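User: I'm new to structure prediction. If I give you an amino acid sequence, what do you actually give back? Let's try with this one:
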Amino acid sequence: MTINEAVVEMRYSGIPEEDIEDIIEICKKKGVSPQNIDIELEARGFDKVFVYEYDEYESWYEGGSSAQSAHKAPSKETLEKGKK
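Assistant: Good question. You get back a string of structure tokens that encode the predicted 3D arrangement of the chain. For your 84 residues, that looks like this:
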């Protein structure tokens, strides 16, 4: 994973820019890996972005179209509330 890929994923997940910059700086020293980034995210009170506990999610073949997505995009309502 490149730093640019990590930044894009964190932005997509709604992580504030200043937190992204701090996390990247820390991970440059520890090693930029999905696991290290998720550890730093959780330390700041955010949910994991890269590592998923797949046992917590219903698999696609058990739930059909109602299976939960592992990656959640912010809802339109959430984004509109943030603008106010």
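You can read the tokens as a compact description of the fold. Here is one thing that stands out. The radius of gyration is 15 Å.
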